[in-house]
Amino acid sequence: SNAQYDPNNVFARILRGEIPAERVCDSKHSFAFYDISPAAPVHILVVPRGAYTDFHDFTSRASNDEILDFWKLVDKISAEHSLIHHGFRIISNIGPDSGQEVPHFHIHMLGGKALGPLLS
Ligand code: 5GP
């Protein structure tokens, strides 16, 4: 178990179906949906169904099956949404210095235009 995890965070509520989200794709252990405030023409969020606060928590506590399922879903989305043809960006905010807002591990998939330099 993870005592740090807040089960009422917004992505936990989306996973439980308590608040709506625009579904992109899902798998046994993972779920993908559109960001409510897109920062690029394509802005998809991918989350594990399990209760993990951030990338480190996920990588250290999730099963190999959950971890493989997650990254395979990311790759599948990149193909199905034509992101791989023009390129795209993956970002995960981890902890306070990153400005992580939602304490449920997620990655942002950003694409659909030339994104420019990450650091500017
Ligand atoms: P973070 O800063 O935690 O990496 O990013 C959280 C992301 O979740 C933000 O890009 C924000 O727009 C998105 N977000 C926050 N609340 C909701 C929501 O209720 N639904 C959806 N689809 N996205 C949300």
Automatic annotation (TrEMBL):
<dbReference type="InterPro" id="IPR001310">
    <property type="entry name" value="Histidine_triad_HIT"/>
</dbReference>
<dbReference type="InterPro" id="IPR019808">
    <property type="entry name" value="Histidine_triad_CS"/>
</dbReference>
<protein>
    <submittedName>
        <fullName>Adenosine 5'-monophosphoramidase</fullName>
    </submittedName>
</protein>
<dbReference type="InterPro" id="IPR036265">
    <property type="entry name" value="HIT-like_sf"/>
</dbReference>
<dbReference type="Pfam" id="PF01230">
    <property type="entry name" value="HIT"/>
</dbReference>
<feature type="short sequence motif" description="Histidine triad motif">
    <location>
        <begin position="104"/>
        <end position="108"/>
    </location>
</feature>
<dbReference type="InterPro" id="IPR011146">
    <property type="entry name" value="HIT-like"/>
</dbReference>
<feature type="domain" description="HIT">
    <location>
        <begin position="10"/>
        <end position="120"/>
    </location>
</feature>
